[in-house]
Design brief:
The complex is a heterodimer of chains A (about 400) and B (about 220). Chain A is α+β, with helices and mostly antiparallel strands and about 400 residues long. Chain A folds into two domains: about 190 residues, no CATH class; about 180 residues, no CATH class. Chain A is built from 13 helices and ten strands. The two termini of chain A are about 30 Å apart. The relative contact order of chain A is 0.19. Chain B is globular, with a radius of gyration of 17 Å. In chain B, strand 7, helix 6 and strand 8 form a beta-alpha-beta unit. Classes of the chains: A alpha+beta (about 400), B alpha/beta (about 220). Chains A and B meet through helix 1, helix 10, helix 11 and helix 13 of A and helix 2, helix 3 and helix 4 of B.
Chain lengths: ~400, ~220
Amino acid sequence: MLPCYDYGRRSVEIAMLLTYIREAVRSLYTAKQRTLLALIGISIAIGAVISLVSIGIIWGNEMLRKATAAGPDILQIDPPWNQEDGEDITVRDTFLLLNSSRTLAEAVPMISTYGTSFFNGQYWATYIVGTTSSYKTINKLRLKAGRFISSLDKNKYYIVIGSEVLEKPAFKNFKGDLLGSTVKINNRSCTVVGTLEDSTYDWHAKYSIIMPISTVTHLFNEKNISKITARMQPNVDFRVATKEIERYFKQRKNIEVMVKANEQRIEEIKEVTAMLTLLLGFISSISLLVGGVGIMNVMLTSVMDRRREIGILRAIGARQRDIRRQFLTEAVILCLIGGIMGAGIGILACYIVCSINEWTFFIPKLGLWLGLGVSSLVGIFFGFYPAHKAAKLDPITALRSE
Amino acid sequence: MLKIRDLYKSYQVGHEMMPILKGINLDVEKGELLAVTGSSGSGKSTLMSIMGLLDKPTRGRYWLDNKEVLRCSDDELATMRNRKIGFVFQSFYLLQRLTAAENVGCPLRYNKISLRKIHRRSLAMLEKVGLADRASHRPDELSGGQQQRVAIARALIGKPAIVLADEPTGALDSHVSQEIMDLFISLNQQEGVTIIIITHDQSIAKQCSRVMIMEDGVLK
């Protein structure tokens, strides 16, 4: 029975559209199997677009979050890889740099090396970081227990243990209070004064045993700084600070340091993320092509099967554009249903990837709109040829066909 | 109402043109009930397709409701089929997905009429052909005679200038055929509907006010 909608004369067009939609749904429902097969194709394709684009966006967000958490005002100064012409950078240079600089608020030297550790009956090779007390604040480290090394610890054999080092069996199996225990590093007994929580994005602090920089210098006979972490004064452009630092080391020591600003990294991450999202979107749209061809196939079969119906409609007064519109509506509705299913698949896939990687899951609006928009476009694009073919059928041939 | 002059139609078969209609002349007045008979292959159906604006003649002139129709565009032809012509076919040609009432209302969809009005008029039309109680049945739930009545209601709903019936009783047994014929006659006499029936059944043709015979592509 026809439902009785009451539309004014002006909304006759809308009523017409509703009729098309109702007809389309009904005819799609009549050809269940075919509809289902087409839906599988298109929904997987759209699911791929939504999930890949969303994963790209979420990944970028994650990277960005890490970079901003470390502080946008932080600069990393690395000496060149092979140092031939110039001199080495020492702890003293760090303080000279800070004193002469007008852009830097803080500069923390760091020596990274490795040694042999012995604890709880086990030997293993460890990364060692020698640094000063400011390393904790500038890298936003958090203590699990005890304290960080302080300026009073000069030349003392005190150590702070990084969060990943604590996962070693030697520490895991240790019952008792770690603070005050002795760890042998290169056969020197060192006292544990603190342990770090797994809260930092600083790779070194996680995987190393941290000692006062003076201790590392004489224990490992290593004067050369591996890295300087610096914080800029407020409202300083990272380009200005970078230039200044580069010039300082070029003039004083004739070496070319590498300065990496977190702010610059943030910009780079944004660029890379945009590129990646675009690339993922592009790759996944290949699957859309496959899904779209599936839609076209189903629609063409549908047109062939319903030639008689097209003939009847033409005989009772349907214009070519009426037929075209009816079949286009059908294709678009097919794609939209596929799009909604695909959105479900995509969001689910995205959620799974996020939980595996421990990323913060959210549904990026762009991904969703892209998926649904693209699905109707696919419907129009791949539905057009079959619809056009239906419209161009000769009425009398269509009517007489079986 | 309907005027045809020197109408020819040939089909290409291989490399040769095969003539089907060889100079048809026909005048149909308003309110006529005309039968066109003839053996199969004589060109009756081709003439019906051309009169119904579903096919174009090779040459000739054709006026429908005082309008020269052969120069019309495809869209105009569709609109004329919608407004001026009602079709009744041998095998009914109803849409299986739709109910009887929806089938009847189908032509009005292309007429910018609200769904509520379409529904009301469909029901009224079904009542006229005696099927008011079958409005929500689908074609496969109806008998042949009932399906043909639905098809007649569909042909009439747009108040066409002319109804073209192509072997309307060809798929029905003689008892039901007579019922359908009675319906045509009463529509013609009481409502003044102009009807052209194409049939090879002499008992049907005899009941019409005028009979023309198609023989070898010419109307006599």
